[in-house]
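Late entry, written up from scratch paper. The run itself happened at the end of the previous shift, but nothing got recorded in the book at the time, so transcribing now.
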Amino acid sequence: MADQTPGERLVTVIAQLREHCPWMGALTHASLVEYLLEEAYEVAEAIEDGHPDAELQGELGDVLLQVVLHARLAEERGSFTFDDVARGLGAKMVRRNPHVFRPDGSLQDSFPATLEEIEQKWDAVKRAERPERRHAFDGIPEALPALAKAQKSLDRADRAGLGLPAGVPVPANEDELGNLLLAVVRSARDGGMDAERALRAAVGRYQRDQGHQNDQAPS
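Output as recorded:
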């Protein structure tokens, strides 16, 4: 064990726990979903609240545990391993960032100066990888919270040159924005409405409308 890297040791420990710990042995991909989401939110909280680096390190470890567990479950049924996950991710980062890497993984001689150039290259590679995704909104997880889904949808629409819904005067800072959003939720509550459901429905209508217009547009 002494010659194992920390990552290799972690994979070994999880494999042993899966074999010898009844609780670990009973885990499934489905039963792990709630823990994966919880750990991701705890990382976000540690960052946003400025927790000490040692705490952030621990929270990142908890997220890594979820990745290793899912990979172990897949390995047990002969599908893929943690190394396959890491190898695939490294290859994808090289492939999706041609502004930094050549196809063989070596660095380019020069790099683009603007975020717009980077986004254009990234989007072009993603379209080539997933030609079945015909619309800007394809691939946005349905299970995203409504507010995150709305922001991601608008980001995608803006980059694709689609129409954006009408906005309101832009708040001066995130404190003002938070107060505005809270006031909207308060109004929904007072009116007996569900703000999450209402926004999710509005995002769905917007995506469908833009998708329909995109279908009708000349290619």
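The CA atoms of residues 82 and 88 lie 10 Å apart.
(Scratch paper discarded after transcription.)
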